[in-house]
Specification:
69 residues; mainly alpha; 71% helix; elongated; Spore coat protein; Ferritin-like
């Protein structure tokens, strides 16, 4: 049997992962402004882009969240 919804503990874990990715993206984006090394700046930009993609994928999982009535 396949469930098309997330259990409460899965919702909590999803929320924690989303918070982690958001904080990581914000930190990397802020560090880009104070870093002068172009290689490091490129790594930070790539990290930001990966985090944006991950956040989008995590947000899609919210559609499986149980609906509150």
């Amino acid at each position: 049997m396949v469930n098309d919804f997330l259990a409460p503990n899965e919702m909590m874990q999803l929320h924690e992962m989303l918070n982690l990715k958001t904080i990581n993206m914000t930190s990397s984006k802020m560090m880009e402004g104070v870093v002068f090394d172009q290689d490091l700046k490129a790594l930070l930009e790539r990290d930001v882009q990966q985090d944006i993609q991950s956040i989008g994928e995590l947000q899609k999982l919210y559609s499986k969240a149980p609906k509150i009535r």
